[in-house]
Write a structure and sequence with these properties.
Blueprint (H helix, E strand, L loop, with lengths): L15 E4 L3 H11 L1 E7 L6 E6 L2 E6 L5 H15 L3 E10 L9 E9 L3 H5 L11 H14 L3 E8 L10 H7 L4 E3 L2 H11 L2 E11 L8 H26 L4
Helix pairs in contact: 2-6, 4-7
EC number: 2.4.2.1
Function: Catalyzes the reversible phosphorolytic breakdown of the N-glycosidic bond in the beta-(deoxy)ribonucleoside molecules, with the formation of the corresponding free purine bases and pentose-1-phosphate.
GO molecular function: purine-nucleoside phosphorylase activity
C-alpha cells in the first residue's frame, strides 16, 4: 500500500535497501551496479529502484537531507514495506588528523545535536549504534577491495552551516570519524521498529584542513563505497545463511 511519501506496492522493495541522500545517486547506483532494474518510487522525485546484484535482489532509494527526512523514509520502508535492513551510503566531512579525503568511514555509532532520539527514548540519551554484523561485513568487504577505512562514531549534525566555530575541534578531540546529517536518526528508527541499519560514507572534505575532492574524484570514491556496500550485503547473507 502506498504511503504519503512512497507510491510503491508491498513487495516492490527488496528486504534490504541502500540509501544515498541524493535521489539522482540512487538512480546512478541502480543503473550502474544492478541488473533487471525497475523503478518502484517516484513521489517527490525521491527515486527508488529494485534490481539484482550478482543475483541478489536489492533496492536503492534516496533519503533526502537531514534526520527528519531519512527518518520518514526509513520508518515507512520498515513498517509498510517489510524492509529489514537499511544501509546509508553517503558522504561526510572529516575532522580527525588521521582521516583524509577519499577515505571510507563506517559508522559504528552516531552522536548528534538533534533531539529526535531523546524524544523517541522518553527524554533519555539513546546510544545510536549500527548493527554489528553489517558493520563487520562492510569492514571485511572494504579490506578485500583494498579500500582504506576508519570505523567509529559519526556525528549527525542538524545544521550544515554550523555557526559555532568550536564544534569541529570538539568533534576532533572526541575522535569522530565523520560528520554527516542522517546516521543517528536512521539508527534510532531501526531500533524503534526492529530493523538493522549501518552507514558507510566517503570523506569528501576535511573540515579543519580545508581539503576537498573535485567532482571527478568524488564519483570515483563513491563507486568504491557502493561496491563495498553491495559486497557487504552478500557477505551478510552468507553469514546469516540467507537465501536471495
Amino acid at each position: 500500500m502506498a504511503t504519503p511519501h512512497i507510491d510503491a506496492e508491498r513487495g516492490d522493495f527488496a528486504d534490504i535497501v541502500l540509501m544515498p541522500g541524493d535521489p539522482l545517486r540512487a538512480r546512478y547506483i541502480a543503473e550502474t551496479f544492478l541488473d533487471e532494474v525497475r523503478q518502484v518510487n517516484r513521489v517527490r522525485s525521491m527515486s527508488g529502484y529494485t534490481g539484482r546484484y550478482k543475483g541478489r535482489e536489492i533496492s536503492v532509494m534516496g533519503h533526502g537531507m537531514g534526520i527528519p527526512s531519512v527518518s520518514i523514509y526509513a520508518k515507512e520502508l520498515i513498517t509498510e514495506y517489510d524492509v529489514g535492513t537499511l544501509i546509508r551510503v553517503g558522504s561526510c566531512g572529516a575532522v580527525r588528523d588521521d582521516v583524509a579525503v577519499r577515505d571510507v568511514v563506517i559508522g559504528l555509532g552516531a552522536c548528534t545535536d538533534s533531539g529526535v532520539n531523546r524524544t523517541r527514548f522518553g527524554g533519555m540519551d539513546f546510544a545510536a549504534t549500527a548493527d554489528f554484523a553489517l558493520t563487520r561485513a562492510l569492514a571485511d568487504a572494504a579490506d578485500d577491495l583494498g579500500v582504506t577505512t576508519k570505523i567509529g562514531n559519526l556525528f549527525s549534525a542538524d545544521l550544515f552551516y554550523d555557526p559555532r566555530p568550536e564544534t569541529a575541534e570538539l568533534l576532533r578531540r572526541y575522535g569522530i570519524v565523520g560528520v554527516e546529517m542522517e546516521a543517528a536518526g536512521l539508527y534510532g528508527v531501526a531500533a524503534e521498529f526492529g530493523a538493522r541499519a549501518a552507514t558507510v560514507c566517503t570523506v569528501s572534505d576535511h573540515i579543519l584542513r580545508g581539503d576537498s575532492l573535485d567532482s571527478t574524484a568524488r564519483e570515483r570514491s563513491f563507486d568504491d563505497m557502493i561496491r563495498i556496500a553491495l559486497d557487504a550485503v552478500l557477505r551478510d547473507d552468507a553469514a546469516r545463511e540467507v537465501t536471495p
